[in-house]
Amino acid sequence: MVNKIKRHMNNYFKSTVLSGLIYFTAITTSQAQSKKLEKDSPKKVREFFVSSLVKIGDPVLEALSKNELKVKMPVERSPGAWDARTNVTYLEAFGRLLSGMAPWLELGTDETPEGKLRAKYIDLAQKSIHNATDPNSLDFMNFVNDKQPLVDAAFFAQALLRAPKQLWEPLDAITKENVIKALKSSRKIEPYQSNWLLFAGMVEAAIIKFDKDEDQKRLSYALEQHKKWYLGDGTYGDGPDFHWDYYNSFVIHPMQLDIYNVLKDKNNDYKTDFTTELKRARRYAAIQERLISPDGTYPPIGRSLAYRFGAFQLLSQIALWKELPKEVAPAQVRSALYAMIHNQINAKGTFDKNGWLQVGLYGHQNNIGEGYISTGSLYLCSEAFLVLGLPETDSFWSDAYKPWTQKKIWSGQEIPIDHAEK
């Protein structure tokens, strides 16, 4: 018996030491990688952002532009998947990808290598919009069956609002008509009493912008409920309750900002609401910047972690809008996002052998997906790239490397005192 106990103890200590060595090695490697990234020039950082967005988006747009998305895109699901997800996953991939890519495409074409690359993807995006909304197309998408299509009709609508010059105005009349029909058809889906209300509101905002006969009830109810659900310090409940997750950045702030941005241009009565929401979003963005660790990681809390760095959509959007708090320099946000995205996009298993995203937060971790997660869902990660809508001449992209808040404080530097806001 004594010998048996000794063997168990020896195995325990060996296991503990091995686990400690693995953890220490991982942390040391991550810190070394973060240190190395500091030396990369702003030009190299932007090239990384562009190449990463293209790597994510290329399989989707290449296939959809040729009416081959439903044939070529794999549909990975988690062990607890609610159903096959094939009824909804394609619109998820398309709408979410386009929403994140839109500001970059909106810069238009020019004779630079990046401008020529944008020309390619603007063309693919326009063809994809046509195929996704043409009832006679092989890749015509489901906007009406099940609940999920309302979500991704909203992301599609958001993309159009973020890039009207490239994703709406050049479309032919028939395609425009099909787009509006597809968006309006999603009205048959009733949203849950949560952030889902904003999906209905976003669809109506696009209809206000590009057509007529918006459903004012679906729009105003979404906004009024979220006024009631504001909890303070830049944070909304997901419904009446607080949730420790990233939905204030996945959906709640970005969609309110984009909805109010449309409404304030149509009606002066919304300007105050827009200003209030922008103030709250700016505060939440400041919190997000402080969440990014010195080595570019962040807390894996709440649901939908398989959206990866899409969790920092709001920080990217506030930087895009040039509305960062005065104590947060654009270059420190760029540097933080670079470390974070670099970590995750280069993790083994993030992509399959054909370049499609796989379920996971850091690499391939299929079990992390909730029942509603499938391959298409993962393309929400593209929302972190909104800052590519700033031209390369902007200070965000041209200023030298700057450490972010946690990078400063954990190396002994001074940081500004943090304050809550109402």
TrEMBL record:
<feature type="domain" description="DUF2264">
    <location>
        <begin position="46"/>
        <end position="404"/>
    </location>
</feature>
<protein>
    <recommendedName>
        <fullName>DUF2264 domain-containing protein</fullName>
    </recommendedName>
</protein>
<dbReference type="Pfam" id="PF10022">
    <property type="entry name" value="DUF2264"/>
</dbReference>
<dbReference type="InterPro" id="IPR049349">
    <property type="entry name" value="DUF2264_N"/>
</dbReference>
<dbReference type="InterPro" id="IPR016624">
    <property type="entry name" value="UCP014753"/>
</dbReference>
